[in-house]
Sequence to fold (402 residues):
Amino acid sequence: MRFRPANFIVLAAVGVSFCGSSALQPSELTSEALVRALQQQGATVTRAGSLPQSSYPFLSVSAQLLQVNGADVQVFEYASATRADSDASKVSPTGSPIGQSQVSWMDTPHFYKRDRLIVLYVGHSADVLRMLEAVLGAAFAAGR
Amino acid sequence: MIRFSRGSAGLLAVALAVLAFQASPSAHHRWKRYHWARTQNPLNLTLGRNLSTAWQNYLQAASSDWSSSNVLNTTVGSGDTTGATCDPTLGKVEVCNASYGATGWLGVARIWITTGTHIAQGTVKVNDYYFNQSQYNSPAWRQFVMCQEVGHEFGLDHQDENFNNTNLGTCMDYTSDPDGTVNGQLSNLHPNAHDYEELDIIYAHLDSFNTASPAKTPSLNDPSEWGQLMKTAHGGKTQIFERNFGNGEIVVTFVIWA
Fold:
């Protein structure tokens, strides 16, 4: 097999690109990995327990509560990305309705989805939004 | 006399259409095609009270507001669940309050659908986790949220979902200033004419069956319906029970045991 410099350069570029993004985007994001990734973004993150599933009757798993720079952020961790996708598909682009539930949010809702996590932030802190977006990508549903 | 060419008449028609659209920007805010099935109007629907004292007047006011519609007649009745669980009951709306935690929501209205678009039952939850905080613990916030959540139960969506624009004067409009006193604007504590118009549209047709159950009348033959024991006399031979239905309605049951 003959060595082709052009192919090597392409493969090296892909490798650098993958490693560069993997620091913030591990292949399978869990709630623990989310906490670490937010801390890497400079956030102060504390776990604040969980809420019963009945507190979110429109989603199929219970919420873990994080405080990110003092703001409540809810994390819904599913058994698989497919199940997370199924619940995410019920959320309207503006955050309500969700399935057959209409929700009166206390502030602007922002829904993020990555791997088997759905993450909800209800608020408008620019810092919190920036850090969530850096780790999770753009919100798939958000109010105005 | 003003004369129009065909071209200018067309332009005028377009302009009038635009003006009409702007004058009623939210004429269509039904929630998909959901509605309660009923064979005649008005729709008679029970709102089950599973509420602490702090909420009862707001539910009663919301019931009165929505019953101003030509097609609705809601009655606040006894609840069949608890605030914490807020389980649904076929044919009615259970209205509940409890502290559901730091959920991010003030209220949730949920409906269950049968035969495609017909509402079979519903629940309303209002979250005391926030309403016990000073920011939301006010008559204005309580009335606004209660009115909106109950409004969803009839098949209404929001007229507007921007928290920061001017109030439309309806509880079906998101706001940060429910009674309009902060920014000197319309109050969003009650339904407005557009809501009633939309309800007229939603309930213009009749169905061949009913999904709403009529209000339950307490059975005086069932001791569990009598309420709280207030007095016992004659060695237990006579007892007085009181059941408070809210809004000044109290049923007193005087029992002479055999």
